[in-house]
Automatic annotation (TrEMBL):
Gene: kynU
Entry's Gene Ontology cellular component terms: cytoplasm
Aminotransferase class V domain segment(s): 118-356
Family matches, as PANTHER family: KYNURENINASE
Entry protein name: Kynureninase
Organism field: Arthrobacter cheniae
GO biological process, one term: L-tryptophan catabolic process to kynurenine
One MF term in the entry's GO annotations: pyridoxal phosphate binding
Organism placement in taxonomy: Bacteria, Bacillati, Actinomycetota, Actinomycetes, Micrococcales
Cofactor or coenzyme needed: pyridoxal 5'-phosphate
InterPro entries with a match to the protein in the record: Aminotrans_V_dom (IPR000192), Kynureninase (IPR010111), PyrdxlP-dep_Trfase (IPR015424), PyrdxlP-dep_Trfase_major (IPR015421), PyrdxlP-dep_Trfase_small (IPR015422)
Any one Pfam family match given in the protein's UniProt record, by short name: Aminotran_5
Pathway(s) this gene product operates in, as recorded in its UniProt entry: Amino-acid degradation; L-kynurenine degradation; L-alanine and anthranilate from L-kynurenine: step 1/1; Cofactor biosynthesis; NAD(+) biosynthesis; quinolinate from L-kynurenine: step 2/3
Catalytic activity: 3-hydroxy-L-kynurenine + H2O = 3-hydroxyanthranilate + L-alanine + H(+); L-kynurenine + H2O = anthranilate + L-alanine + H(+)
Length: 416
């Protein structure tokens, strides 16, 4: 021991953090009943400005403009927010991103469009540790289209690697669907490397950025990605059930054949025409009426991310996860806790997972005490560190609380 406690280190890091003051922009960050909110990667906190913006939208836009609002601008909102998202966090030029549906539905639309673009091929590659919806959607499409799923096995503290993908793809691969940041381990995939391997095999790629967008910068255009989708209620603070977003590379837009052709993705919705004629560009991915109210909070967070800049956000994210690992090693390793995330900052997204058999029963008690991490089956606690709303102090408070519980449950001093 150095004599400097984890709490002291947290105080030093908070004092030196150039982004620390942004915490005050989020409602509830000063709420003493929540001592540590480490689940911003599952549901981000609301920004205070969102209350005003939602209220004024309801009063002035909805109540004031009524049905005229659609013609006066609402119809363009999904693409405007998509373009901002592309510019601020995704490295995507305008005209390739749109907000619509849930992540699950967008993954379905994109994966179906991808396999339709490779009709002579029979396989989809995905990893076994991908988020359930990604696996279920792929299995559903495989049943529907008589395709085979080729599974990649990954390490408990990692994710799919370029080598795994090289071994899995071949002349039958239509699509590779993987996550940029793995939802459990936090592993960052080599998106450009894997994309190139898939392309060299003649396959298309669909990347799920749910656990990276807003914390780990992406360069979708430069990485030559075909399709991507992601969540907006995690690091984009869009609120419970906020609609997701999708990216389709410009080169695929003219031929994209999406499986849910609805009237608002048609070329001229208000012509009420006899036959479906898809809109030009990314709007063809839309099916039904866009959930405008649901996408306003995300725009507030994008404005903040644009102002702060993704490089600074990523820097803080790396410091938060590095500190969490330092605290785990100092306080929890001696109790048998194992880090289930990559150690190298360059391979780690905005969260880490730690494993211990006692965690399966520990989380409800932590929540009661105002310490809110996530439980991940079978014995993982996931610590999600949302860069602009999480303090180093919260990390210290949570890990000290976990240490306290492990000490009292084993009832014995740990092996030093
Ligand atoms: C959170 C998450 C989703 C969420 O899907 P929804 O349809 O929006 O509920 C999908 N994929 C991954 C990898 C996620 O982390």
């Amino acid at each position: 021991m150095t004599g400097i406690t984890i709490a002291d280190r947290a105080a030093e890091l908070d004092a030196a953090d150039p982004l620390a003051h942004h915490r005050d922009l989020f409602i509830g960050s000063q709420n003493d009943a929540v001592r540590a909110y480490l689940d911003g990667n599952s549901l981000g906190r609301p920004l205070a400005v969102t209350v005003d913006n939602l209220t004024s939208f309801i009063r002035q836009q909805w109540a004031g403009r009524l049905i005229r609002g659609w013609d006066e601008g609402w119809l363009g909102v999904p693409q405007q927010i998509g373009d901002q998202l592309g510019r601020v966090t995704l490295g995507a030029a305008a005209g390739q991103c749109i907000v619509a549906d849930s992540t699950s539905v967008l993954l379905y639309k994109l994966a179906r469009a991808a396999v339709a673009a490779r009709p002579e091929r029979s396989e989809i590659v995905i990893d076994r540790d991908n988020f359930p919806t990604d696996r279920f959607i792929v299995e559903g499409i495989a049943r529907e289209r008589n395709l085979t799923v080729r599974w990649i096995d990954v390490a408990y503290d990692g994710g799919a690697t370029a080598r795994d993908v090289a071994a899995a793809v071949g002349p039958q691969t239509a699509l590779v669907l993987l996550s940029h940041v793995a939802y459990r381990s936090g592993h960052i995939a080599d998106v450009p490397g894997i994309t190139k391997i898939a392309h060299d095999a003649g396959a298309l790629v669909l990347w799920d950025l749910s656990h990276s967008v807003g914390s780990v910068p992406a360069e979708l255009d430069a990485w030559d990605v075909d399709f991507a989708a992601g969540c907006s209620y995690k690091y984009l603070n869009g609120g419970p059930g906020a609609p997701a977003w999708a990216y389709v590379a410009q080169r695929h837009l003219p031929t994209l054949d999406q499986p849910i052709p609805g009237w608002l993705g048609s070329a001229d919705p208000f012509a009420m025409g006899a036959a479906y004629q898809p809109a030009d560009g990314i709007r063809k991915l839309v099916s039904g009426t866009p959930p405008i109210l649901g996408m306003l909070a995300m725009r507030d967070m994008l404005n903040l991310l644009e102002q702060v800049g993704m490089p600074a956000v990523r820097r803080k994210s790396e410091l938060l996860t590095a500190f969490a690992i330092e605290a785990v090693e100092e306080l929890l390793t001696k109790h048998g806790v194992v880090l289930a995330s990559p150690r190298a900052a360059s391979e780690r997204g905005g969260h880490i997972t730690i494993d211990h058999p006692a965690f399966a029963t520990m989380v409800p008690g932590l929540w009661e005490d105002g310490i809110i991490p996530d439980y991940r089956n079978p014995d993982g606690i996931r610590l999600g560190l949302s860069p602009l709303s999480t303090s180093f102090r919260e990390v210290a408070v949570a890990i000290e609380a976990i240490a306290g519980r492990l000490e009292s449950s084993t009832g014995a001093a740990a092996v030093e």
